[in-house]
Structures are given as C-alpha cells and as structure tokens.
Amino acid sequence: MTTLIYTHEACLNHKPGPSHPESPERLKAVLRALHTPEFDAAEWRDAPMGTREQVLMIHTEAFVEDVEDASPNQGYMPLDGGDTVMSPGSLEAVMRCVGAACAGVDAVMGKEVRNVFCATRPCGHHAEPNKAMGFCIYNQAAIAAAYAYDVHKLERVAVVDFDVHHGNGTQAAFYDRPELFYASSHQSHFYPGTGLEAETGISHNIVNVPLPRGCDSAMFREQIAAKMLPAIRAFNPEILIISAGFDAHHLDPLAGLNLQDDDFEWVTRELMKIADDCCDGRVVSILEGGYSLEGLASSTAVHVKALMDH
Ligand SMILES: [Zn+2]
C-alpha cells in the first residue's frame, strides 16, 4: 500500500492579499518539492469538495452562514482583522481542504492506501467552532477527526500538531469531548497565547508541550519523547491525524524555534510507530503553517518521504 497525496488547484486561488505570508506560493513550493522522482511511488488525487455537513461536525451553523455570506465576488473580505481574509476563491479552497481531509480518512479506513498527505491550504488549526482566526477559516484537521468519529464510528481519534503555533481551534473543539485527543508542541508564549500545560481538557484529552524561543533539535526531541509520545500511546487512538505545520523550522520568518529538516522526519517516524502499534498504521497528515518557502519545501519533502518509506 502506498501514500496518497490530495491537492487541488482551487487551493491556489485563496488569495489573502499581496503581502500576506500565507500566500499561494507556499503550496506551489510544496508541490514543486513533491513533484520529483523520489515521490513517484505516491498516488495523487484531486481533493473532492467537502460538504456543509462535514463542516458542521465542528463549526456552528451561524458561523458557517457568516463565512458563506462573507465570501466576496471581488476584492477582499476580512474575517479576523487583517489576519484572516477571504478572496473570491477562498470558499472553494477551504471546502477542498475539508474534502481532502475527510476523503483521506475514508481512504485509510477503507485500506485503499497506507497513509495520506493533504497538500492543501489555507491552514485550519486556529479556526474555532464559531470563529475564523490566524489565517484559518475552517479547521480541517478537527473536522477530519469528528468525521472519523461520526461516520466511521471510531471511539478514539487523535490529532497531533507540531506547527509552531498552538492550535487553539482544535483545542477548543475537543476540550469537552473525551473521545477526541489533541496533542500540540508549540512555541510559548507566542501567538495565539493558548497552549499552556495546565490546559488539559475534560479528561486529560488535551496535552500541550510548550517550547521556549530558540528551542533546538535536542530539546525538541527530548520534550516530544518525554511528554507527547507517551500520552498519545496511552490514549490508544484508532486513527492519527497530523496537523503538519513546518513553521518551527529554523528558516521560518514568523517564529523563533530552531528545528532542522531531520527533526520533522524524526517526529513523523515516531508518530508512525505509534500509528503502527495503535491504529494499524492509519495516518492522515494535513498541511498547516510554514512561511519560509525553502524551509517549508524541504521539511514537507522529508515528512512525506517518511510517510512513504514505511
Ligand atoms: Zn503556524
């Protein structure tokens, strides 16, 4: 069985503005890195459109109506100050993100493929059930988790997030749901301000691993091995969804951690070991942040290569 990569050209048509760091160039850099011979064994599919029903598994109806009403025919429409902005292509882009994430769950549950990478944008983990935030409109990782629970009737679903920012949206959606587990490593204190160790969820189903500015490879691996990996294993998930952000890379212009490409390979392999032991290898990885085009391309490549090299 192989690795399946979902993407869609509509994800290039979310254009939050000429000076916005979450630019279409990010996805172009990822796709250039993955369209090389070492990824020939991966299977590619166009991301399907997500459905409103899928979005409503996490987001409130009032919020979804607000997003649909805000979708502009031309120009820009801000949802969260200047951070989160819709352009005419944004609504389809986010519905492709949702569709890819849920189809990814279907593909691993149906044993069509070993694992999935969603090369989609915008990112999603800051989007809370009732608000867009931090470049994120809908939270596709949280939606994929709820979809695995609601549709595939799994009893324990984990989202693991190594983006440099805390996924406040995923935490908010999961906080009171013991069947959904969220583990995040992130720079702290830093945007968005959440993600303290004391934020544990209703049944210790939230595990936050805050990392100080300047955190290097050795500290990252030590903290992940000590605090995150055992907690995921103890939760014993039936599927692992990865919020794969690459902005903890040392080249990233927005953040202050010091990770190298091979740290992303290491954490991917560690998560796959847990997936092999707990969930029959089922992993759906979803692109989140990463704002150095060079660092994003190289670290995404080692991440996807690790998924394939299983
Ligand atoms: Zn981020």
Structural notes for this entry:
This protein is of the alpha/beta class and 310 residues long. The chain has nine helices and ten strands. It has helices at 24-34, 52-55, 61-70, 90-109, 140-150, 168-174, 217-235, 261-279, 293-308, and strands spanning 3-7, 43-46, 77-80, 84-86, 115-118, 157-161, 180-187, 206-211, 239-244, 283-287. Strands 2-1-5-10-9-6-7-8 form an eight-stranded parallel sheet, with helices on both faces. A two-stranded antiparallel sheet has the order 3-4. Strand 3 (77-80) and strand 4 (84-86) form a beta hairpin. The longest helix is centred in the first third of the chain and has 20 residues, at 90-109. The chain starts with a strand and ends with a helix. The model has no long low-confidence stretch (mean pLDDT 97). The structure holds zinc ion. Zinc ion binds at residues 163-165, 245, 247, 288-289.
SSE order and pairing:
Layout: E1 3-7, H1 24-34, E2 43-46, H2 52-55, H3 61-70, E3 77-80, E4 84-86, H4 90-109, E5 115-118, H5 140-150, E6 157-161, H6 168-174, E7 180-187, E8 206-211, H7 217-235, E9 239-244, H8 261-279, E10 283-287, H9 293-308
The protein binds zinc ion (ZN).
* Alpha plus pi helix count: 9
State the secondary-structure class. alpha/beta
- Which regions have little confidence, pLDDT < 50, spanning 5+ residues? none
How helix-rich are the residues, as a percent range?
25-40%
Strand coverage percent: 15-25%
| Oligomerization state | single chain
- The side-by-side strand order for the widest beta sheet comes to 2-1-5-10-9-6-7-8
Q: From the alpha-carbon coordinates, what is the Rg to the nearest angstrom?
A: 17 Å
Number of strand segments: 10
Q: What overall form do the CA principal axes indicate?
A: globular
What does the average pLDDT come to?
97
Bound molecules: zinc ion
Helix-strand sequence: EHEHHEEHEHEHEEHEHEH
Report the end-to-end length measured between terminal Cα atoms: 10 Å
What's the main sheet like?
8 strands, parallel
